[in-house]
Amino acid sequence: RIHSLLAELDDPQVASYLRGEDSVRRRFQLADRLAGLYSQYLVYRRDWLLRWERDERSGFAVAGHWQGELWRRIVLDIGQGHRAQRMNDLLAALPRMSADPDQPALHVFGHSHLPRDILLALRQLARSRLVNIYFPDPCRELWEDLRQQRTHYLAGDEGPFLQLAQPLLASLGRLGQHHALLLNSLDAHDDDRDLRDREAREQPQDGLLQRLQNAIRTLQPTWSAQSDEALLADDSLRIHACHTRLRELEVLKDVLLDQLARHRDLQPRQIVVMAPNMAAYAPLIPAVFGQAGRSGGLLPYHLADVSLGRTHPLLTAFMQLLDLPGERISRSQVLALLGLPAVMRRLGLDESQLAAIERWLVRSQVAWGLDGPMKADFGAAPVADNSFAFGFDRMASGFLLGQVPPEQLLDGILPAAPVAGPDAQALGPLWALLELLADWRAQCAHPRRLSEWSWSLQDWIERLFQADWQDDEEQSALAALDRAVMALRVESEQAGCDPEVEWPVVQQALLQSLETVPERQAFLAGGMTFCGMVPQRAIPFEVVALLGLNDGEFPRSSADAGLDLLLRHPRVGDRASRSEDRYLFLEALMSARRALHLSWVGQGVQDGKPRNPALPLAELMRQLDRAHGLEGAAAKGERPWLLRHALQPFDARYFESDSTDPRWFSYSAEFAATQADPQRLPWAFLRDAPALPQVATAQTVALEDLCEFLARPAQWLCLNALGLSRSALEDEQHGDQEPLTRDRDPRDDTPVQLLWQALHDGLDQIPLDPPVHLRQSGQLAAGWVGDQAYAELREQAQALLDGLRALPPFAEGAPLPDPQAIDLTLDGIRLVGQVPDVYRAESARWLVRVVNSAQADFGKLLPLYAQWAALRLSRPDEDSAVALLQPDGERPPGSQRNDWVKAFPHSLESLQAGLLGLVQEYRQAEQTAGRYFPRSSHAAAKALASGKEPLAAARKTWRSPFVDAGEADYAPGYNQMLGGDETFLAPGTAGAADFIERARRYLRWLGMNAGSGSAS
User: Fold this and answer.
1) Among 497, 476, 479, which Cα is nearest to 488's?
2) Which pLDDT score is estimated for 281?
3) Where residue 224 falls among pLDDT bands split at 50, 70, 90?
């Protein structure tokens, strides 16, 4: 109703706001905010609303405000009574009730704050029956102190009663003070105190937490200090500064395990973990504590106070889907949607088909956009290139036609191959999803009635998701989603209006519904409880932990924008988010029985610089300093109750057996074992016993495996020795970005493809226009930019073609390759395989390799050398030659034959010795891991050849001064894993000596001479 009535409101400020950009979303947000404010007014400003209804224009603080005019229209539109009127009637009726001693007493508990109207109603009700109110009072002395200062309260003067002797109580207890004042105004007949508060007790001599609690309870500003040794050993109150939220959880786990180990009577159900923003920790908790709800293990837990949208991946995905109508719809988004189990189930996809779809989308150069018209909506050229329509046409053509010559293309569509086999059935589900997204986007382009949106959304959910009938959680999530969508229709029916709204309004309403914490979400459900910092969560627990006490995040601030009239005209007893958060912190502090654990992200993860804690935590730390005489000149130095943790959980300080600081400990057996045995090495293939006996003892070696190891040794070892793949971390050449510039990825071999295509067609010149397969592939940008990009590719390809024409096999055309089978025996080891890229020139065989890189390191040279040696040794009586053609880095555009390859030896004895050496290194790869890296080893070899320092040259290549340019930084990180300790670059070490000796051997085998380079 507010959403509809805003258009009729005659207020310049509101009208100006609604005329701004994004007016649809603004109008909904304003209506939603006003609805929340009126709900607060109904509870805390009943008098305002009633006077607004009577159209009183003066006599009270907010008379004549535009919110009053809007409220009058709302009341007229509703046509029925509301809470303020009913409360007014109730307060008038209660005094007329006669006393009845037979009525049972009314017990009111579970609150730290009640509105004034509720308390007035309870006072009137107490005239006819007994009313017992239970209030968790943090201070024994505060009650009598407030009785003495009641006159200040009645006069509306807040100043004196906030001046308390206990600094923390004065700072954190404002909400409780106001509530206690209101309770005091009820003229209660009896004040029944807790047994521990009925009479003064001596200050306890146990932990720091208990001393602090006693000081607050007795209104004492300080307490007797303990010795430093006692404070170090005292774990009743510890404050932890961590680098990340994940480290907070890792530290918490060790602390809780320590509590359980030292206190055998402590049970997980007696532990509560709270955070101002538990949603930020929810995805990380399973990584540290395992899955929620399990009954086994030392630390079972339950997660409470989490928004509906975060209770299941299906709901989280749906929240992201709500943005799709206004987004570009990228390849990664569609793949993420297809990867949801409920979507796969509905579309009939399996894992193999999903992987096939991903391959096809990449090969088809799909980036974003459903089709050309959709791309135009986002300001791009209205062409289908790199869209899903473009890619699907290529996939369908590949399925129907396979690979065909350019002249046989159907409608100029280049087939994407291969699209065949059983996985080809995935084309149907992919098309169904794209049609569903297109249909939904079209529906969201026009306003509709709220009920119509509800029906359409339910239909869309039915077409997109299918829950597993054996998965109760997924079924519950889908049912919750249905209820959230149905609520749009139900609420409009209850309101008696069905407004026509645009999609952003519906989207905002659904997001708000899914971001709300369910009312019936279980709190105590067995095991530890992870929950938010909300009222009445801090009931007494043996161990209380507060995470995320970061500056700027706690106390939480509410967006006001000047609309909240409660803040402009406050009264005693009003709720304020910052005061409420401060009181929640005080409640948590007073509720811990055995230990209080406080943490915040107090150190920068990149620079290690300290970060400020939340203000309540900072005030607590100052109070601790004051109580222990650590102010002023003594402020510097460590605090025994504060620990600044290491960045990593495997830091050696956690495992030092002779440490005198009991705060540093860990319960990680894996990290402890590593620290206990310095000789223990982390990788299986670095142990004395090889992890791949089939490689070390095999009498047959495949030439292809040998070349793969020489080209990418770190990747080969990780995949074959550890079974560890990092393919998910590979850098994508384009990702979700279509080509928009002339820039090309260094790994792009398009010039080489153009070269071989020209040779195949018998051309001496690379065509001036892009060939059909390149033009229709989506690899080039559209328009002039694409033309310029092709011109550069053509220039590079032409230089390579000219250089290739200078070689005898290619002088008069394009000879067919003549692969040579290899079957050699080297010192009892059989080497088998095939040498590709072999071409005949009269009576000679040429091994020719063309690369599109001006740099040729050992990753290219050694595999070519191994193939060359195998070819020569297999055909000792035939003439053979070898060439590596690459761009000329000094005189571009141009090409050159690699000088290292020119120096390859032709002597059969030298080739046999070199090839045998490479085979033996391959068989011993696990024992010598981390001693050969193609680029760095090549840099060291070049330095040796020129008489320079090899390690200095290798270090510059391994860790380039340019960002992410060194060999150590190559994605996806295999080199970093094997060379992480970098001992092979440390002068004077055995690793460095072995690294240099290998480079020297490669020089000798390749026919180059080493100079007098130093090993330093």
Assistant:
1) 497
2) 92
3) confident
Do 263 and 321 have their domain in common? no
**Could you tell me if residue 427 is inside a domain?**
yes
Distance (Å, whole) CA 748 – CA 752: 9
Last residue of a domain, one of 633, 655, 677: 655
Residues 343, 125: Cα–Cα separation, whole Å: 56
Span of 158-172, 398-412, 703-717 with lowest mean pLDDT: 158-172
pLDDT given for residue 549 in this prediction:
96
* CATH number of the CATH domain containing 260: 3.40.50.300
Output the pLDDT for position 154: 47
| DSSP reduced 3-state for 260 | helix
361 confidence band (pLDDT: 50, 70, 90)? very high
Whether the pLDDT of residue 463 is over 90: the answer is: yes
Q: Which residue has the higher pLDDT, 451 or 297?
A: 451
Mean pLDDT is lowest, of 263-272, 310-319, 614-623, 976-985, for: 976-985
Q: How far is CA 895 from CA 450, 454, 748, 886, in A?
A: 67, 65, 17, 6
- β-bridge partners, 838: 847
1, 21, 55, 772, 791 from 13: Cα distances, Å: 20, 15, 21, 60, 58
- Name 616's Cβ contacts closer than 8 Å, sequence gap at least 6: 171, 172, 549, 554, 555, 581, 582, 585
Q: What is the mean pLDDT of the chain?
A: 84
Residues 499 and 425 grouped into a single domain = yes
DSSP state of 86: H
Is the pLDDT at 681 greater than 50? The verdict is no
895, part of any domain? no
- DSSP letters, 722-772, are I----GGGPPPSSTTPPP-SS---TT--HHHHHHHHHHHTT-SS--SSPPH
- Domain encompassing residue 258: 228-309+526-557+572-655
- The answer on 251 and 294 residing in a single domain is yes
Q: What percent of the chain has pLDDT over 90?
A: 31
Count up the domains in the chain and report the number. 4
Domain boundary at 92, 111, 136, which? 92
- Residues 443 and 508 reside in one and the same domain: yes
> Do 257 and 273 fall within a single domain?
yes
Joined tokens for residue 594? 């055995």
CATH assignment at residue 484: 1.10.486.10
Same domain, 33 and 43: yes
What pLDDT, on the 0 to 100 scale, is given for residue 189? 64
Length of the chain: 1016
* Residues 66-94: tens digit of each pLDDT: 888 899 988 888 878 889 999 999 999 99
289 has pLDDT over 80: yes
- Average pLDDT (314-321) is 89
Residue 501 shares a structural domain with residue 642 = no
Q: Identify the helix (H) or strand (E) that includes residue 834.
A: strand 829-835
146 touches 177 (CB < 8 A): yes
CATH number for the domain spanning 30: value is 1.10.10.160
Q: How far is CA 55 from CA 4, 10, 38, 310, 760, in A?
A: 21, 16, 17, 45, 90
Q: Does a structural domain hold residue 844?
A: no
Q: How far apart are CA 451 and CA 52, in angstroms?
A: 32
Kindly state whether residue 834 falls inside one of the protein's structural domains. Answer: no
DSSP 577-634: HHHHHHHHHHHHHHHEEEEEEEEEE-B-TTT--B-PBPHHHHHHHHHHHHHTT-SGGG
Residues 534 and 395 in one domain: no
pLDDT of residue 12: 84
Which pLDDT value is given to residue 423? 87
Cross-strand partners of 847: 838, 882
- C-alpha 45/C-alpha 38 separation (Å) is 9
For CA atoms 181, 183, 185, 190, give the dihedral sign: negative
Distances (CA, A) of 961 to 607, 949, 956: 19, 18, 7
Instruction: Say whether the peptide bond before residue 693 is cis (omega within 30 degrees of 0).
Output: no
Residue type, 539: I
Q: What is the DSSP letter of 640?
A: T
